[in-house]
Amino acid sequence: MTATYPHLLAPLDLGFTTLRNRVIMGSMHTGLEDRFYHYGKLAAFYRERARGGVGLIVTGGISPNREGWLLPFGGTLNFAGDVLNHRRVTSAVHEEGGKILMQILHAGRYGYQPLVVSASAKKSPISPFKPRALSEAGIERTIAAYARCARLARQAGYDGIEVMGSEGYLLNQFLCARTNLRTDRWGGSIENRMRLSVDIVKRIRAKVGDDFIIMYRHSLLDLVDGGNTWDDVVQVAQALERAGVNILNTGFGWHEARVPTIVTSVPRGAFASVAGRLRREVTIPVVASNRINMPADAEDILARGDADMVSMARPFLADPQFVAKAAAGRADEINTCIGCNQACLDHTFANQRASCLVNPRACHETELVYAKARVSKKVAVVGAGPAGLSAATVAAECGHQVTLFDSFDAIGGQFRIAMQIPGKEEFSETIRYFGRKLALTGVKVVLGQRVTRAALLAGGFDDVIVATGIKVRMPPIDGIDHPKVLSYIDVLQRKAPVGKRVAIIGAGGIGFDVGEYLLHDPAHALPVPLAEWAREWGVDLAATTAGGLVAPAAPAPVRQIVLMQRKTSKLGAGLGKTSGWVHRATLARNGVQMLAGVQYDRIDDFGLHITVAGEQRLIECDNIVICAGQDSLTELMPAEGESGGPAFHKIGGAALAAELDAKRAIKEGAELAARL
Ligand code: FAD
Ligand code: NAP
Ligand code: SF4
Known about the structure:
By secondary structure, this protein is α/β, with parallel strands linked by helices. The protein is built from 21 helices and 27 strands. Strands 10-9-8-5-4-3-12-11 form an 8-stranded parallel beta sheet. It has a 5-stranded parallel beta sheet with strand order 15-14-13-16-27, with helices on one face. The two termini are 38 Å apart.
């Protein structure tokens, strides 16, 4: 059973307790931990992950006091009455043979609430609230709050706690000169700056005894100006080990850093070698983290000695059975996290419950249930894009007889196009997953056949799910038929040749993606190799500079691009909260000119004529690429008033093209199929 991933699946003996394997489900804020009435749902969420075989789970961040709240009234453990809620979680995990740590998170100046405190009264760029500098007495109260929180966690049945010391939260704010301007014994030298972290660990250890896991998440590369040097990082790690930490987890980049650390375009396992450097400096187990999403990559990291354990967070939203599937040699059945952040972090930052684009059941385990249907129906699903794939596989899992049709000769729909965008290569994993799932659930797949309404009516189906997606919108601009004009499908799917000077009409997700695609030199390998990515973003993986930052050195752009929209708002404002800035920064760095408030006048041999701010301009270009949205493709739906025959349903792009994304498409498919 452990033959395929011998390092990953090996137990880890901590002396007083043994973890069943080397896989940690890293801390994620789900939104369920903030309200006591959601703890039943939270317990169900963790139960499924523990049943799936993960070695150690870490909860979302729980504050030790009100000052440490990330959001107003966030999850807090500071009095005995809270213990009972947490017991529901720990019991569920223990019943499945798992172990669980509670993360203690003090947000410091990242708190989105008025009670915020920090090392110094210096506002962060990502919260509107200016923090109050903690007094000596305030620091003492904070240490006591951490110790009390850990003691209560022990009472609640947790196997230990994780102290959150990275990503720019309170302890990081004390650790770095960037935010610690103090001149007392808590500021200045690294010995003073780390005093808070070390004292917290010592005080917790004294309160909880030796047979309770203390994991500390340590920031190895801060990726901000005023971050720590490698010598500082090592000194802190060694002091934490002496203070009583059992496991050192690792973190990379503060939340305010302008370097992406977890989005899909970050190469897999990008930071593992830095964890490896730290592992040589301490004797306790070190954990690798960030952008590790498949067992083979995790196994490689452990096999080459970069870490003792691997932490994956989002991959457990995508697939609770990750470890069980790996252990059974069924890694090809894993529903892989594609690093999109669309349903997890983007939700968290919008104060919504987290879920997962590829697994809408995540954090909704008690609400979206794929139960066996009482009557097995004959179901046709037309369209093998994300919506159709989701509907077909869930319907088959629920016991229906499903036939899935697509006019193309491969499954995936627009996701097959999306995966060609540099940095979106991971999207192919979703297509691989669904392909395997179709086979496992026994869906009959008919490809290369455009389905007609007559065929559907003659097919004897009980239900027809129309998941035919969209047709590209070509705006009625004078000259739209000019040979210079291409649609994004011409460029991405039909591979039409594109000149060196390009105007892109439409600056939604696809306009930005087409920009990235056209900026990429086809001679360069994809996915972008790690060293090249690090140069482009100015990351010093050798950790020779403070904070791990160097001057970025991106290759020269291969095209001149102008990206346009009619709205007067900032371009890309509608992109994902946690990933949009990466796309905007990439295009800006490559000299893409962004124009808002554009009126498209006409297209001719000279290029695109526009009016901006009342002034007429000519964009001289070789090609104009249209990324102006889409309209639903609904030709298979019954006409108004038509009755009889199978029940017709529409989902995904076919239901509504506006603001469509794969998150909605997959969710609609699963929800409809579960209630057929
Ligand atoms: P589609 O994916 O369009 O699938 C419809 C399928 O139906 C097609 O395969 C088509 O061949 C088939 N079909 C149509 N008519 C018939 C017929 N009569 N008979 C048989 N078959 C038929 N979304 C995100 O969430 N995140 C992203 O980062 C993202 N990036 C994108 C990047 C690009 C470049 C593109 C093009 C899209 C991107 N999307 C992204 C959007 C996402 O791919 C779509 O929202 C999603 O694919 C819609 O799913 P769907 O199943 O409704 O339709
Ligand atoms: P979109 O986000 O709706 O953007 C369409 C763009 O076209 C807008 O910039 C719009 O801006 C412009 N437009 C609309 N009608 C127009 C017209 N008649 N003439 C000229 N311009 C027009 O759609 P999309 O970019 O095609 O993306 C489709 C879906 O895929 C999106 O909903 C998105 O969620 C998803 N997607 C997501 C990602 C991601 O990274 N999360 C990436 C790609 C795609 P103006 O109206 O201001 O001109
Ligand atoms: Fe991963 Fe995207 Fe799911 Fe988040 S929403 S867990 S990033 S696949």
